[in-house]
Amino acid sequence: MQNVVAPANGRLAGNIILAAENIADHFTHFYMFFMPDFAREIYSDEPWFETIANRFTALKGQAASEILPARAEFLHIAGLLAGKWPHTLSIQPGGTIKTVALHEQFRLSAILLNFRKFLEKTTFGADLEEIRSFQSFDELERWLAQKGPDHSDFCRFFHLAKELNLEALGCAQNRFMSYGAYYEEDGLLFAQGVHDDGLKGLDVSQITEDVSHAWMAPDSKARHPSEGVTIPDGEMADGYTWCKAPRLDGETVEVGALARQLVNGHPLIVDVVKRSGGNVQNRIMARLLEIAVLIPVMQQWAYQLQPGEPFRVHGVDQDESQGLGLTEAARGSLGHWMSVKDGKIENYQIIAPTTWNFSPRDSEGMPGPLEQALVGAQVREGETDPVSVQHIVRSFDPCMVCTVH
User: Fold this and answer.
1) What is the number of H-type helices and E-type strands within the chain?
2) Chain segment 118-145, per-residue pLDDT in tens
3) Among 14, 91, 56, 20, which residue's Cα sits nearest to residue 290?
4) Which of 145, 283, 342, 354 is the most exposed place for a label (fewest CB within 10 A)?
5) Global pTM exceeds 0.70
């Protein structure tokens, strides 16, 4: 389809659906996956252990009983705007196919308000505008010192980060990319670009995928995804993963909330990356910050919906064409490349966010961001399953199901 522009309702509904999924992922990751790792027995001698274990032990801690109902209610947004979650199909070329009645708009606003109240009371212990307004890490540290470690779950995380020096754990190559996300009338809410010792424009024609260390049929060159070939070969001698190795102009990039907020120029994230780069602390910080940034914007989008007005326009299918779709999922930059011939899909290739972050080595031997971040991970005495490795892997919030081709 060519020259198909979604009406305002379709644009707003698409933004809300994407933001709801991304926030739900950040929220779930923090409470159900990342924080429970600090309740492991390896930390039982730490002075903070009992408090953290009581709150964050997986499924049994106090937090689980609080956040699961809040999450379930929040995800009703997907039902209202997309019919179901996951695997929503309502976002289509030209807008969304699920319209919103006036009573649904009221319910949507109520869900957002209730979730915001939960975040401000339990997660952050402050208005979201206050959290999103921090200009530097020094300012944040002064605020944390004033509030104390038991003020909120946000404060509890930073207390652990300081005690365990998570700022020095899981550092990668400090090259970041974002495709940009959330269409506004005058552009993107979150900017597109590359950050490598400064902000640069993004040229998607420079993206390639290398299969030299993947369980894929050997290929003599790294290919642009529009020309990508995916032929599995479990016997490939040099392979150690089902994940291809995407590169931007021959280089690795880290993607995710940290990359998004850095490319978008949020002062706090610009400051912490300048201070210590990409690491466990900063990746989690960026996810929490992104929740605080997005919820007020979602409330504005919900208010701007116009029940009774169109949510989608229709285009004309093309018998032969090529297209790409770029967006920012919770874990980072997601790209789809498709070619159509004789009215049928001829080739379809996807680079998921975790494919970027969990990339294997390429033909030059260059490891991906996770492999770089794992170098030098601490092993505590008596450990056979190092918790530091768990923290590093969790900090990228991997989705291996999406990554396997």
Assistant:
1) 15, 12
2) 999 999 999 999 999 999 999 999 999 9
3) 20
4) 342
5) yes
